[in-house]
Design the sequence.
């Protein structure tokens, strides 16, 4: 009987946690020091980045399906429609990285979340998807 992929991911995650916890005893450095998660701000930031990443990458699936099924675009053309999102990310990453040295990262994060929500709302309103 085949093992469920979720079980394998859970086992891999638990193995990763064990390796991180025992890194010092093995004479190596932990990739992610688990003690950092004791600081509430760090834990909240990790959660925020995870949420933002999940949202950004998971929203591409329904957009791709809409472009292909409702608009009749080929898979290649639908993929090219999302190309500007990747280009903006690549271009803006170093700019935002330098900006976080001068401005509170919390403020930048709030601006980013607000921009994401506004953009998604605009896209879905344009597509006629949503409540109403």
Sequence:
């Amino acid at each position: 009987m085949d093992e469920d992929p979720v079980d394998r991911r859970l086992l891999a995650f638990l193995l990763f946690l064990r390796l991180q916890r025992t890194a010092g005893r093995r004479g190596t450095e932990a990739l992610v020091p688990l003690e950092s998660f004791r600081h509430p701000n760090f834990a909240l930031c990790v959660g925020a980045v995870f949420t933002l990443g999940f949202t950004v990458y998971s929203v591409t699936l329904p957009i791709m399906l809409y472009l292909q099924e409702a608009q009749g675009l080929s898979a290649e053309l639908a993929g090219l429609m999302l190309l500007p999102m990747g280009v903006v990310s690549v271009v803006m990453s170093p700019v935002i990285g330098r900006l976080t040295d001068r401005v509170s990262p919390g403020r930048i994060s709030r601006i980013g979340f607000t921009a994401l929500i506004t953009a998604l709302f605009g896209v879905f309103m344009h597509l006629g998807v949503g409540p109403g």
